[in-house]
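To whoever is on call:

I kicked off a structure prediction for a single chain this morning and the downstream step that reads the tokens threw a length-mismatch warning. I double-checked the sequence; it's 70 residues and nothing unusual in it as far as I can see. Pasting both halves so you can look.
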Amino acid sequence: MGRIVSAQWSSSSAPTQTNIDAYRIAGRAFKKTLAELQALIETDLAGLEEKMERAGAPWTPGRVPRWEME
């Protein structure tokens, strides 16, 4: 992506076919990586947070605390 941006930064012409191809390759790689990250967050991290909650672990940033009125 850095090379694509660099090539286009000071250009007033349309992206080259090489830049278009590189963008598509990067997009496919990102799509796969994003799916893996989403699975990690939605499955693995959710399970870990549940275990932490049950164990009474202190709150950590990004984790929504459970609260019930006493």
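Update from on-call: the warning came from a stale cache, not from the record. Cleared it. Sanity check on the structure: Residues 2-55 form one domain.
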